[in-house]
Amino acid sequence: MSEPTTKRKLIEVALPLEAINRESARENYIYRGNPSSVHKWWAQRPLAAARAVLFAQLVDDPSSRPAEFPTQEAQDAERKRLFELIERLVVWENAGDERLLAQAHAEILRSTDGNPPPILDPFAGGGSIPLEAQRLGLEAHASDLNPVAVLINKALIEIPPRYAAQPPVFPGAASDVAGIAGWPRASGLAEDVRRYGQWMRDEAQERIGHLYPKAEVAGKPANVIAWIWARTVTCPNPACGIAMPLVRSFWLSKKKDRKTWAVPVVGNGQVTFDIETGASGPVIEGTVGRTGAACISCHTPVPLSYVREQSRVHGLGAQLMSVVAEGARQRLYLPADHTQSAAANIDRPEDVPEGELFDWPGRINVYRYGMTHFWQLFTNRQLVALTTFSDLVGEARDRVAADAKEAGHTPEHAEAYANSVTLYLACILSKVADYNNSCAVWYPAEDRPKNLFARQAIPMVWDFPEVNPLGAIGGTWSGCNAT
Predict the structure, then answer these.
(1) Helices 47-58 and 17-27, interaxial angle, to 10°?
(2) At what angle do helices 72-89 and 17-27 cross, to 10 degrees?
(3) Residue 192 in 3-state DSSP?
(4) Taking burial as the number of CB atoms within 10 A of a residue's CB, which of 286, 304, 328, 417 is the most buried?
(5) What's the rounded Cα separation, in Å, for the pair 141 and 204?
(6) What DSSP assignment string belongs to 226-269?
(7) Which residue pairs, CB below 8 angstroms and at least 24 apart, start in 5-8?
(8) What are the tens digits of pLDDT across the range 318-347?
(9) pLDDT for 113-136, tens place per residue?
(10) Span 202-229, pLDDT tens digits
(11) What gap in Å lies between CA 294 and CA 308, rounded to an integer?
(12) Dist. CA 142–CA 154, nearest whole Å
């Protein structure tokens, strides 16, 4: 029986969709080592789906080989074998299995007469398709109109193969007993990113560590994870006039075993906050919502139009509600104190971005509240931290270049390598900025911060966490460097 002139590919007949869908969904909750962690991209395609689709597009369906599989039973058996291979391919833990990838590559060569076509993705976005093409041993080309996408694809696809099998240049890293024998793939590059990233964190600790004082718990110092702030505006009631806190929710933690919330206390013309735990929860959810706000002292209804006007003319204030500290395998929520509040009361640095936002109703809502420039999305302490890390990225680049030359690389190669390492460090800083701004939110269900860009918008946020960037949770420099 002769084979058909045009062969049907496996994807045209059937796919093990249940396994592909399951692994694609699971991938969204794997952060460490996930290429999607390099930089934020809105339309990040699942790697498992891209890997499976590329394979199935290139491999023949058994029905296209009647000479080899003459009966329906034989075709079904072969298709089942290919399905089992795909089901193994899409599992996250198998993404680096060289033997499995070699087997998949052999199947592709078999169906393409040893000459598989190159894969071109002209709108590669987050780079899932060309990255998985490379993983399957295919020639891949990627581009995009968006410069951020181009940067992501350089970081994922172009740069790592360039430095495959190259040991790290950070002093002592290549001979470290914990090093990787032979430094396969781009493990040497990854080690340098971690090492120079840690150097940056240590330098930042020396320069700005005093801005992040420890808390006191049972008479002992405890590391602070975050400070939770509430924006404030002057109450319009002339008989009151307090700095009324604008709080979306008083919940601090919704963990079943330690539900915690802030309790506003009015006295002497000001509001302070106590911290309570228990099974009940706050008496009121908050003081501001989509329809307006209310003064916690005199209960005067306050329209959002008043808040917007006051914010544009005078700016909004901020009051510390709670300090989140490290406990014994749990978060500790402490009342605000003068030491913690005063540590954040610093001047804005001079060298901050002066770029302007624009009014985009429903998307950039902060504009309506007088936050018209990028620097207004951050507290002064956050601006100091981000500019410090930004300066350190440049300093780290110079160190990488010098260390690479010391390790025997030519000046040209050392400069190129320093630029490559710096790209990843800059991506880490971008991720840190996504968490370290006054439009991020605290997620009580999981006792952690959530980044600003959960969607393509900059919404107005009333109560927000200021993460300690020198800590070790998600959103800190070390947390972002580890991913």
Answers:
(1) 150
(2) 0
(3) helix
(4) 417
(5) 38
(6) EEEEEEEEE-S-TTT--EEEE-S--EEE--TT--EEEEEEEETT
(7) 7/60, 7/61, 7/64, 7/65, 7/111, 8/60, 8/61, 8/63, 8/64
(8) 999 999 999 888 899 999 999 999 999 999
(9) 999 999 999 999 999 999 999 999
(10) 999 999 999 999 999 988 999 999 999 9
(11) 14
(12) 9
- Encoded tokens for 458: 């900059």
As a whole number of angstroms, the distance between CA 130 and CA 108 comes to: 16
* Residue whose C-alpha is closest to residue 38's, from 149, 167, 138, 199: 149
Structural contact between residues 310 and 368, judged by C-beta atoms closer than 8 angstroms = no
Tokens at 430, concatenated:
């971008």
Q: pLDDT at position 35, please?
A: 84
Intervals of the chain under pLDDT 70: 1-5, 177-181
Structure tokens at 478: 């070390």
Residue 37 to residue 193: CA distance in whole angstroms: 14
Do residues 226 and 324 lie in contact, with contact meaning Cβ atoms separated by under 8 Å? yes
Q: How far apart are CA 228 and CA 136, in angstroms?
A: 46
Q: How far apart are the first and last CA of the chain?
A: 54
- Which residues have a Cβ under 8 Å from the Cβ of 150 and sit 6 or more positions away? 143, 144
Q: Which residues of 367-393 are buried (b: 16+ CB within 10 A; e: fewer)?
A: bbbbbeebbbbbbbbbbbbbbbbeebb
What global pTM score does this model have? 0.91
Q: 10: closest CA among 84, 117, 97?
A: 84
